[in-house]
Amino acid sequence: MRILSLTTKDEWNKFLAENRGSFLQSWGWGEFQTSLLKKIWRFCLGEENKVLGEAQLIKETFPLNLKNFLYIPYGPCFKEELFVKARRKILNLVFKEAKKIAQKENAVFLKIEPTLPWPKDLEGEKSFERIQPKKTLILDLKKSGEEIFKNFHPKTRYNIRLAQRKGVKIFTATYNTQHTTHNMQQAASKYIDIFYKLVQRTATRDKFAPYQKGYYKKILENLPSELFLAEYKQKIIAANLLIFFGKKTTYLHGGADYKYRKIMAPHLLQWTQIQESQKRGYERYDFWGIDEKRWPGLTRFKKSFQGEELEYQNGKDFVFQSFWYKIYKLIKGF
Q1: What is the pLDDT of residues 101-136, one digit of tens each?
Q2: In angstroms, rounded to a whole number, what is the distance separating the alpha carbons of residues 287 and 311?
Q3: For the chain, how many structural domains are there in total?
């Protein structure tokens, strides 16, 4: 097992798409992180010029910029047919390269949050917190639209039809040109301000901290992503940001105007997103994060669409500087 020459953007993403890799390991996500002034490193790993794994590392900072750590979100990505022994070899090679980077960057630890189970004998400390969601809901888009709709909670089906009767219209906007044949598309720059205001209102109501507006704008600029917007009486009352990568659509962020809650636009918005994902040939729809304690209302809303609940195992931290790792845990309240 060795480090191979870095592939092109298309080859990198093709490997991920063929092996259920996450958009968080995609080339575009790396470019997005670079646009946020973060350092990234990409590694192709394999044998005899055959790629068997890919890993993208991101340099993250401590609170108050005291120190930094290295981070692999939802990775590395392995070729699906690899056995545990080969996956362990890839992980060991990633650790070896991460140690070299950590020495140059003075990084305190390497955090890995995988989507697949760890080899049982893998060293490292169990992460005391996750950056990415631990639980999510996945909807199988290979089923017929009729079957998917029929499986929704009865109240959800009612709310979708109510929004349709009220005359809610759905359209999309994007910076990305991949789907320019879509009749509804318009420049996302016209709608990012509206989207952000809706996100802010939702964040205040549901008690979570949104990113800055520029963060969402850079996602739209760097990834295969779109805004889906719900309009009622010439006013946009709900909007969601979706990422289309590999064979999966991910509902990443969204917001709605609480004054129009009885119009039920978010329900129709989700249903339209699911239908559009099916039309484009995607096989899975990820609702991206549920937590009954932290986001009870949002979790209840997502669960009403009856996706399959998926729980990822805890990540692991591979510590290079024990003292600063303890400081990090104190800062984070653990």
Answers
A1: 999 999 999 999 998 877 777 778 888 888 898 899
A2: 13
A3: 2
